[in-house]
Design brief:
The complex is a heterodimer of chains A (110) and B (115). Chain A is an all-beta fold and 110 residues long. Helix content of chain A is 0%, strand content 55%. Chain A contains no helices and 11 strands. In chain A, a hairpin with a 2-residue loop joins strand 6 and strand 7. The radius of gyration of chain A is 13 Å and the shape is globular. By secondary structure, chain B is mainly beta. In chain B, 0% of the residues lie in helices and 52% in strands. In chain B, the strands form 2 sheets. In chain B, strands 2, 4, 5, 6, 9, 10 and 11 form a 7-stranded mixed sheet that branches. A 4-stranded antiparallel sheet of chain B has the order 1-3-8-7, with no helix packed on it. The termini of chain B are far apart. Classes of the chains: A mainly beta (110), B mainly beta (115). The interface between A and B is medium-sized, with 25 and 26 residues.
Chain lengths: 110, 115
């Protein structure tokens, strides 16, 4: 079993829709949770960073962590074609290596 | 915000030659740098972790003599692919973090093609 599981998709939604991306993890020692966006042939870009359980909102993006169920979510409101990318969830125990999910390929159709 | 510069962005080399990839943190001191490899449509696979001034820690299955990592300063880490072969062709990405900041910053990646 992988430490961080993520549905690879692909996921295709119309412009303006709310997108829900999810991951589960198995290591209860994980304390830090991140979402990265990666465009084709580019390095990942940090979108959201959360410590422990709770919600964090930044513009159209909301990250949620539920440590009791080991569930990580990213919501994108009013999705735009420019949001089309691969989204990677990641977790770590601290200033140590990140463990990534497989990444979900998302396409927003105009 | 934190910026990590990675060079070159793309390199083509002949089999048997060595290639060096540089990763620099531009506006912060990177106590730890990570090197990843990514195959098409797959996630990032951690190759090694390097701390400034000490030997890199390699993940299981990664040949340390083939993938030489040097982290000589708090702003620079290099990955050298030695005696490259076509199966080494991949997308290599570095990331860096500084003490107290857990938002790891990634470089833009290097696409290596070995012919």
């Amino acid at each position: 079993q992988k430490e961080v599981e993520q549905d690879p998709g692909p996921l295709s939604v119309p412009e303006g829709a709310i997108v829900s991306l999810n991951c589960t993890y198995s290591n209860s020692a994980f304390q830090y949770f991140m979402w990265y966006r990666q465009y084709s042939r580019k390095g990942p870009e940090l979108l959201m960073y959360t410590y422990s359980s709770g919600n964090k909102e930044d513009g159209r993006f909301t990250a949620q962590v539920d440590k009791s169920s080991k569930y990580i979510s990213l919501f994108i409101r009013d999705s735009q074609p420019s949001d089309s990318a691969t989204y990677l969830c990641a977790a770590s125990q601290g200033a140590q290596k990140l463990v990534f999910g497989q990444g979900t390929r998302l396409t927003i159709n105009p | 915000g934190a910026v990590v510069s990675q060079h070159p962005s793309r390199v083509i080399c002949k089999s048997g030659t060595s290639v060096k990839i540089e990763c620099r943190s531009l506006d912060f001191q990177a106590t730890t740098m990570f090197w990843y490899r990514q195959f098409p449509k797959q996630s990032l696979m951690l190759m090694a972790t390097s701390n400034e001034g000490s030997k890199a820690t390699y993940e299981q299955g990664v040949e340390k003599d083939k993938f030489l990592i040097n982290h000589a300063s708090l702003t620079l880490s290099t990955l050298t692919v030695t005696s490259a072969h076509p199966e080494d062709s991949s997308f290599y990405i570095c990331s860096a973090t500084n003490r107290g900041n857990y938002g790891y910053t990634f470089g833009s990646g290097t696409r290596l093609t070995v012919v």
